[in-house]
Amino acid sequence: MRFRLTPRETSFYDMFAASADNLVTGSKLLMELLGADPSARAEIAERMRAAEHAGDDATHAILHQLNASFITPFDREDIYRLAGGLDDIMDFMEEAVDLVVLYQLEELPKGVEQQIEVLHRAAELTAEAMPHLRTLDHLPEYWIEVNRLENQADQIHRKLLAHLFNGKYDAIEVMKLKQVVDVLEEAADAFEHVANTIETIAVKES
Fold it and tell me: What family does this belong to (predicted)?
C-alpha cells in the first residue's frame, strides 16, 4: 500500500459498510417474498421501500462527505462509483419486489428462488468485504467469488427465459414475469460492477 503523509477521512469506510449491510436486509426481504402468501406481499414491499430509502440516505451521506472532504481514502471517482453501485443494487431489488406486487403475480416461475439465493450470497460477500477496504486484505477472494456468482446468475437467467417462452404462459404473463427476472439479473450485474470497482481501488492503492 502506498505510504501517505497526509491524514485521510476514514468515515467513508463505516458508511460503505452500512450501505452494504443494507443490501443484506434487502436480499432477505426478497427471500421472504418468495415464501409469502400473495396477500402479505404488499407489507414486504413496504419494508423493502423503507430499506431502499435507507440506501438512498446512505448514498447521500457518502456523497455529502465526499464533497466536504479535502483528503479521501482513495480516488474520488472510485468513491462515487462505489456509492452509486451499491445504491443501484438496492434499487433493482426494490424494483423487483414492487413489480411482483403491482402486477399481482400469484406465482413466480421455478428458478427465481435460485436468482434470489445468488443475490443473497452476493450481498453477504459484499457486506463482509467492506471492512477490508481499510487494509485491502482478503479482497481478491471476494471479487473472484462475486464474478463466479454473476456467471451463475447469467445461466439461471437464460434458463428462466427459456422456461417463460416454452408456451405454457400467456403473452401478458410472460411480459410481467420477464420484467421481474430481468431486474433480478440486473441486480446480479450490479453486484459484479461493485466487485470490479473494489478491484480497481485495490489495484490503485497497492
Answer: Belongs to the UPF0111 family.
Q: What are the Cα distances from residue 205, in Å, to 69, 128, 135, 136, 187?
A: 19, 20, 10, 8, 27
DSSP 101-137: HHTT-S-PPTTHHHHHHHHHHHHHHHHHHGGGGTTTT
Stated as kind and residue range, the H or E segment containing 163 is: helix 139-164
Give the contacts of 113 (CB within 8 A, at least 6 positions apart): 34
